[in-house]
Amino acid sequence: MNPDYTPYHPKWHRRRMPIFWWLGSGPYIRFITRELTSLFVAYAAVLLLAQLWILSRGPAAYERFLEWLASPAVLVAHAVVWLALLFHTVTWLWLAPKALVVQLRGRRVPNALVAAVHYGAWVIASGLVAWFVMGGAP
Amino acid sequence: MKMVSLEIHRYRPEDETEPTWQRYEVPLRTEWMVLDALNYIKDTLDGTLSYRWACRMGVCGSCGMMVNGEPTLTCAMYLEAAGPGPIRVEPLRGFPVIRDLVGDLTDFLEKLGRVRPWIIRKEEKPQQGEYLQTPEALAEYKQYSMCINCMLCYAACPIYELEPEFIGPAAIALAQRYNLDSRDHGARERMEIISQEEGIWSCTFVGECSTVCPKNVDPAGAIQRYKVAAASAWFRSLLPWGKR
């Protein structure tokens, strides 16, 4: 007989949540990956700010920075960052229709269309940035 | 007759300090749900097994359990579909276990009351007859009104288990059900409670609450819509002409 038990105050059992609770299921793994890849988003933002700061320090410093960017180890690391950013952006924009309920002429716009507009805007914005970086600007 | 094994979570606090697993063999009948198998065990094999159920038709929300690790209404899951066995049946995750497959839902009921899930009116009585509502106005909240309080969404939500203060998916979806009702004037009152840290902002949008919902209530969508509404209300309050 468990001494803590009385018929009027049953002893509840509370599960202890394991640290790796998310490893057991596909949706939880995807969720944690989406959350963790936000660190790569932060890295990309810091990298861009660092690039601007180094640019302000003159052409020689900027040249050295570009050389560092072109080194094989950094290229490999940034390929990984790029994949993480891609995963984060695709999964993040996929959630947009959940938060945005758009009504058009009294009818709800389908979720797939809301997501498609977000993906479209993302592709256009990326294309514009690429065009600018590649020297397309006058 | 073909048989199937069920591994059932047992917890008898008068005898044990930790839960154990008990295996039962039941006939694999094509028309049986997992709940029918539990009733067979209770009626013919072991009368000491404790679990909740009532309607057997997916309306009462009592028979929610973890079947093979997934939050499931046991009256709506065919035994064959859950097979080939052993089929693991556990109490809903996130709730303290009173006995065997019975969880304690007091925490949810307390939180549900906190979000005021009823129509709040500035003036109580309609001027004449009943309050009228168009089909379009009904469609706004109908989805959220389908909630049967089965708690599957809580069991699917890791945040609820990690942060027990979190109000949780169903309670927030039910608050949204009344906010979107054209007869209701209580959105601001509810916002005070729901826009707290333990309300919508605890949700990190795992999204599994909506996946497991047997009534397609989409609590995850309700919470994200609430976040947008709360954020825009806060921005409006910062404007010189904005009112809090």
Question: Can you walk through the features of this model?
Answer:
- The complex is a heterodimer of chains A (138) and B (244).
- Chain A is built from 6 helices and 2 strands.
- Chain A has helices at 26-36, 38-55, 59-70, 72-94, 96-99, 111-133; strands at 103-104, 107-108.
- The model of chain A has no long low-confidence stretch (mean pLDDT 89).
- In chain B, 37% of the residues lie in helices and 14% in strands.
- In chain B, a hairpin with a 2-residue loop joins strand 6 and strand 7 (102-103).
- The interface between A and B is medium-sized, with 26 and 32 residues.
The oligomeric state of the chains shown is heterodimer
Number of strands of chain B: 7
Q: Level of helix content of chain B?
A: 25-40%
What is the rounded distance between the termini of chain B? 68 Å
Percent of residues of chain A in beta strands? Answer: under 5%
Output the strand order for the largest sheet of chain A. 1-2
Note the total helix count of chain B.
Answer: 10
SS class of chain B = alpha+beta
Strand content of chain B: 5-15%
Mean pLDDT of chain B: 93
Percent helix range of chain A: 55-70%
Instruction: Give the number of helices of chain A.
Output: 6
The biggest beta sheet of chain A reads: 2 strands, antiparallel
Low-confidence parts of chain B, pLDDT < 50 over ≥5 residues?
none
Q: How many E-type strands of chain A?
A: 2
Specify Rg of chain A, calculated over alpha carbons.
Answer: 24 Å
Order of helices and strands of chain A: HHHHHEEH
Structural class of chain A: mainly alpha
- Rg of chain B, rounded, reads 21 Å
**Based on CA inertia axes, which overall geometry of chain B fits?**
elongated
